[in-house]
């Protein structure tokens, strides 16, 4: 488990209910009653949720209303997380949630909640962590059963409507869990408690500047990728994994490594082979341009057909940069055809890019994309044979659940012939002659109907698309792409920026903006604004970048300098950060924020801002150091000489400051504690002496993610302690003050039974720059002759 710290699991989830601006007006029909013709999802700002609005399931979006109802009715909660282009999510809707009998069982036994993971990536990651803690592999839809106190006790992905060998059906699962909850829930509660305990186990919260090592991280990451590389077909996957994903952050790392002669010797062959294999196989849509989400086979031949903006946004720039660095026109052509796809299918008339395009048409996955040789001959006529000589139609595998297959195969280039041409540097020229054939086949394909698109326009994904267009525009000398990147930047600012609140909204949907933006939204948008300033020197972009940086520093940095996915002050101050997962399908918010603040500091010659960036990096440096290959975007970006120099300089300063402060920075090093019996043994006087410049969190703590000063007895019995009020303290970049104890503090601990001999104090010491890890200090009680 990465970083859920020592916060209570129920509060982690409950915090995520407090800012549900994603959800629009909801009908107020009672849960558990008769099925309704249109449930509470009908007016939400999500195509995925709306797609379930006519289910007989009495769905709720994730809101406090739903959670409170579960507590009131003492029912478990069934949470299903997915997204609009998730094929198996659509299958589940048809096979499970449209079934009146299954819906009746869900309504009778559970409070049922639907979540769009692209609206709530924080909640998605917390629930995915729960699924994995329960021993499941993960994937979407992600279905988690929770107690009314929000502790997970059962999870899985696609549940079949009928039993399969070794697998229960969904109706069987519902019946078993509902009956067990009503008649013998203790095993479920015990499992929920164990799972919650596992999720509480977090990493040490202290800063780790001494582990920051940009050059070493890149070298170790490249070595790791070399060990995971498939030398036959390219790409990176553990042994035994059949599916293949583009893994854009890792490709970005390989491109960055080309600047180092020693690392380039390892990185370049992996980069060249992977990019070639992805674009020769059917991960790339040869007829219509753009990339599918992933392939179900290791040869890149059979795609899972949905197309995501987040993938194509990154791959456009990666292929263009690789074409420039490696001198290959084929990569340039792939980038150009991917831009054509984005413009044709995902650009919205009112501005911004839609989020994704579905894999299925008429309930059949791949129907929009496959061809038979007969269909190709019917469209191309006498040109068909030349086309078929260069292209291979790969049949889709039979589904293990016997779903209908489309008529035809996935269009690949003929692998052997294409690879030979690629190695000779002739692939672009050879395939260029098929442009008119592709256009004719695309027209025929579109006549079948077009897959549905997810009409959300998300800040983070659009900013990545703008960055991708910029990265491609310069090497390919495309002023129109540069203009499109500027249009994305203007759309983000004029449509999603809230000037009053000085923050972004997460999305636009059907003319309305909504949703709390996350760190990744602000950091990606900031990177785009700064990049646009670098290419145009128009001061408006620099102004916008500065405003976004100020928002990050105000809302997403806590008093110790650590970054959070959502503002620590949000939701009444309850904890909010999901576990860190690194740079997975796209750069993480943490990675992008560090790079953005570093770069803005360099442009403005603002060393204080660069110091804040490195302090933020120190807050998760231990995670990066443990697995640098999982942080490909960050590691590659920090290894650039200008950034590496600044990072190393500021990290050394942080280490020196910690050393000058005396010791490793444990809380107990800055607090002296003594305890003695008073009042004839009726109470214990606890004295604390706190080092100058440090403070302890008051009790109660001002925010639930802070550890309050707390005293418990290791033996004997004590009564409630009247903790004194704290003194207001406000860190430089905190939005509000918190209550703290400073200097000398005396606490009276009443004795209500047998006199304790030892007390335990839970403490967390902070100064105006850093919060140390929470600590537990034991102290003997001086009996003083009593």
TrEMBL record:
Gene3D superfamilies, per the entry: 1.50.10.10, Glutaredoxin (3.40.30.10), Thiol:disulfide interchange protein DsbD, N-terminal domain (2.60.40.1250)
Domain Thiol:disulfide interchange protein DsbD N-terminal: 680-780
InterPro entries: 6-hairpin_glycosidase_sf, 6hp_glycosidase-like_sf, DsbDN, DsbDN_sf, Ssp411, Ssp411-like_TRX, Thioredoxin-like_sf
Spermatogenesis-associated protein 20-like TRX domain ranges (all copies): 38-199
Stored Pfam families: DsbD_N, Thioredox_DsbH
Signal sequence, renumbered to the chain: 1-27
CDD domains hit by this protein: SSP411
Top-rank taxon, per record: Bacteria
Keyword Signal annotated: yes
SUPFAM superfamilies from the UniProt entry: Six-hairpin glycosidases, Thioredoxin-like
Keywords: Signal
Region annotation (Disordered) ranges: 560-587
Keyword Lipoprotein: no
Name of the protein: DUF255 domain-containing protein
Species annotation: Guyparkeria halophila
């Amino acid at each position: 488990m990465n970083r859920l710290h020592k916060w209570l699991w129920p509060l982690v989830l409950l915090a995520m209910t407090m800012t549900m601006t994603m959800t629009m007006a909801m009908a107020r029909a009672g849960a558990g009653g008769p099925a309704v013709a249109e449930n509470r999802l009908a007016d939400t700002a999500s195509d995925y949720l709306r797609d379930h609005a006519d289910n007989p399931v009495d769905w709720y979006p994730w809101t406090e209303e739903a959670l409170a109802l579960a507590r009131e009715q003492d029912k478990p909660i069934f949470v299903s997380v997915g997204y609009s282009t998730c094929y198996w999510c659509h299958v589940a809707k048809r096979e499970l949630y449209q079934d009146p009998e299954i819906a009746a069982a869900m309504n009778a036994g559970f409070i049922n909640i639907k979540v769009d993971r692209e609206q709530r990536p924080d909640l998605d990651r917390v629930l995915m962590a729960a699924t994995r803690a329960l021993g499941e592999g993960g994937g979407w839809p992600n279905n988690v059963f929770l107690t009314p106190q929000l502790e997970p006790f059962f999870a899985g992905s696609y549940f079949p409507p009928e039993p399969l060998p070794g697998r229960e059906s969904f109706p069987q699962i519902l019946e078993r869990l509902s009956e067990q909850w009503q008649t013998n829930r203790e095993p479920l509660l015990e499992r929920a408690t164990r799972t919650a305990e596992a999720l509480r186990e977090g990493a040490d919260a202290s800063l780790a500047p001494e582990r920051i090592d940009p050059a070493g991280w890149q070298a170790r990451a490249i070595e790791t990728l070399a060990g995971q590389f498939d030398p036959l077909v390219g790409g990176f996957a553990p042994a035994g994994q059949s599916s293949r994903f583009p893994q854009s952050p890792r490709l970005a790392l390989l491109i960055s490594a080309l600047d180092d002669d020693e690392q380039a010797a390892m990185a370049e062959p992996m980069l060249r082979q992977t990019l070639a294999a992805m674009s020769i196989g059917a991960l790339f849509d040869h007829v219509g341009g753009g990339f599918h989400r992933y392939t179900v086979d290791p040869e890149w031949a059979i795609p899972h057909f949905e197309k995501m903006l987040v993938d194509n946004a990154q791959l456009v720039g990666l292929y263009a940069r690789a074409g420039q660095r490696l001198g290959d026109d084929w990569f340039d052509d792939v980038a150009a055809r991917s831009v054509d796809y984005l413009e044709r299918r995902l650009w919205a008339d009112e501005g911004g890019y839609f989020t994704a395009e579905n894999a299925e048409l008429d309930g059949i996955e791949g129907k929009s994309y496959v061809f038979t040789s007969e269909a190709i001959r019917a469209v191309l006529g006498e040109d068909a044979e030349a086309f078929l000589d260069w292209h291979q139609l790969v049949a889709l595998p039979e589904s293990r659940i016997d779903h209908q297959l489309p008529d035809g195969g996935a269009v690949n280039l003929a692998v052997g012939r294409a690879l030979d041409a690629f190695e000779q540097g002739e692939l672009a020229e050879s395939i260029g002659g098929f442009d008119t054939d592709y256009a004719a086949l695309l027209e025929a394909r579109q006549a079948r109907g077009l897959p549905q698109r997810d009409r959300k326009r998300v800040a983070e994904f659009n900013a990545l698309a703008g960055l991708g267009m910029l990265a491609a525009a310069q090497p390919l000398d495309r002023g129109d792409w540069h203009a499109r990147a500027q249009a994305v930047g203007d759309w983000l600012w004029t449509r999603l920026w809230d000037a009053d609140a000085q923050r972004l909204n997460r999305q636009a949907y059907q003319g309305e903006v909504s949703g709390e933006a996350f760190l990744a939204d602000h950091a990606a948008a900031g990177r785009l604004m700064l990049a646009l300033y670098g290419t145009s020197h128009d001061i408006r972009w620099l102004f916008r970048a500065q405003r976004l940086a100020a928002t990050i520093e105000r809302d997403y940095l806590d008093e110790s300098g650590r970054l959070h996915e959502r503002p620590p002050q949000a939701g009444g101050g309850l904890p909010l950060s999901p576990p860190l997962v690194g740079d997975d399908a796209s750069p993480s918010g943490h990675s992008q924020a560090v790079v953005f603040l570093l770069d803005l500091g360099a442009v403005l010659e603002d060393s204080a801002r660069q110091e804040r960036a490195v302090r933020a990096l120190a807050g998760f440096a231990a995670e990066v150091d443990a697995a640098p290959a999982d942080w490909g975007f960050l590691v590659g970006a920090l290894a650039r000489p200008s950034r590496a120099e600044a990072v190393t300089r500021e990290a050394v300063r942080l280490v020196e400051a910690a050393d000058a402060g005396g010791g490793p920075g444990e809380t107990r090093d800055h607090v002296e504690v003594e305890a003695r019996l008073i009042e004839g043994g009726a109470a214990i006087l606890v004295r604390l002496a706190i080092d100058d410049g440090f403070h302890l969190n008051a009790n109660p703590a001002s925010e639930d993610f802070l550890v309050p000063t707390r005293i418990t007895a290791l033996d004997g019995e004590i009564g409630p302690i009247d903790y004194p009020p704290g003194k207001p303290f406000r860190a430089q970049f905190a939005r509000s003050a918190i209550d703290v104890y400073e200097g000398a503090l005396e606490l009276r601990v009443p004795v209500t039974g047998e006199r304790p001999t030892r007390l335990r104090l839970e403490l967390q010491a902070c100064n105006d720059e850093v919060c140390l890890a929470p600590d537990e200090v034991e102290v003997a009680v001086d009996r003083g002759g009593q």
